[in-house]
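Page 42, continued from yesterday. The earlier attempt failed because a stray header line got pasted into the input along with the sequence. Redoing it now with the clean sequence only.
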Amino acid sequence: MSTKREFGDYQTPREFAESICMHLAQDRGIKPSVVLEPSCGAGSFIKASLSSGARKVYGIEISGVYCDICRKDLPGDCVEIINEDFFTCSLDGLERPQLVIGNPPWVNSSTLSVLGTESKVPKSNFKGARGIEAMTGSGDFDICEAFILRIIEEFRSSGTAVAMLCKTSVARDVFLELVRRGVSFRYCHQIAVDAMKVFGVNVSACLLLIQLSKDECHPDTCSVYSYEDWARPVAVYRYRDGRLYNASLAGTDYDGHCCFVWRQGVKHDCSSVMELTITEDGQYMNGAGEKVCLEPDLVYPLVKSSMCRKPVISEYSKYVLVTQRRVREDTSFIHELYPKTWQYLETHKSLFAARQSSIYKGAPEYAMFGVGDYSFSRYKVCVSGFYKEPRFCVLYSTDGRPVMTDDTCYFICFSSYSLAYTAMLYLNSAKVQAFLKAISFADSKRPYTKKVLERLDFSRICADVSNDALKETELQLGLPAYLTQEMSDSFQTLICGAEPADAAVKSQ
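This time it went through. Structure tokens are written below.
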């Protein structure tokens, strides 16, 4: 049998499967006579469906071992086990199910690719991510999501109910796709599940419940319930203009397009070589504990997510070796101008060659990503993508050296400290913080991404957040009084004159 990691194999306990079927019948009136389980595993949902009165249950399963278990435990004409890959299996010969239920694999396409799985999953870029976004992970997706979307396409306009255990991030993505694809459905609900209690997995999970519709019906909301109470929603997500936000937290609306370009930090996938500290005797030490001799010109201060705690950061304990000023730049200049650094890189050549990401394929030796003119801006305002609370900080170095961030951070660039400082106060103000929480999701691995941050419309923010509110933010952050009306006016002038996208970077 394949490993649990390979197929995201978290078998559903029999008692929990029965509890779900009971709730579906009692709380949603779903009492199907024909049921389909597209990844049936050892058969918990098949058994639960039969106990709830189904006369026919189809189970599809790629693992021959699980199929043998199901056939042994579930004999008879009322159960049909199909040993095929769900992504290539034809459903044409089956009776149309009133309910499709199950627990598809909780694994990403990139993991299957690394492990060499034979499942004929869709191409990793099935949502159409373009260019570098597809190469660096935007094209990666959860196999569970692909399962659910195939089910929806198979049974759209049929009135079939879909009940799938999945991560909450997958459930939100499916809801977005439902609306984007114009699928008719009566409702889309998330029933929160304690994944640690049920599966022993520390992840935010739910039962995603979709009632497809034969009639034209296109709700723009998805309600969230606790598993203990399927009657009263605890939150409501709303779809608007291709985006989701938490309508339960909605306050002042700053949704729009950001006039600044949010950038992600440097990516090198070789931290033991590229990330450095400075010893007491002034020498560089790498992540492997080796003291190394380098020319200082290519070494810059580094901020990682865990360091984004203070509102202003100007002193650094970590450094990073930056081998390029732009993506795909030829790195041979290092050999000519910085022989010590080149020798150091050459010594660790095998570690660079072992990097798995496809972005390094065909790239120059010792290449990085997330580098450009913006990387060398003297003043940045940065936020960690990981923190549940979006805390923004000004980054600069007293010696004038540009400060780098790693690829778990996002930042915008400014030409002066006063502009960066003012932007930081706006972003940390109470109203902006509340808005960010309404358009992000704390259970995500990265609640605050480029896609979230680029929704911040600074023209709306500046028009609504007063100078007094900025001074209050300054006080709450424990900063000495520094903001002036002139600084606020200068920032607003910048906003009014800024063109979309790259203008803010080009001006620096």
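Notes: The chain has a mean pLDDT of 89.
Reminder to self: strip header lines before submitting.
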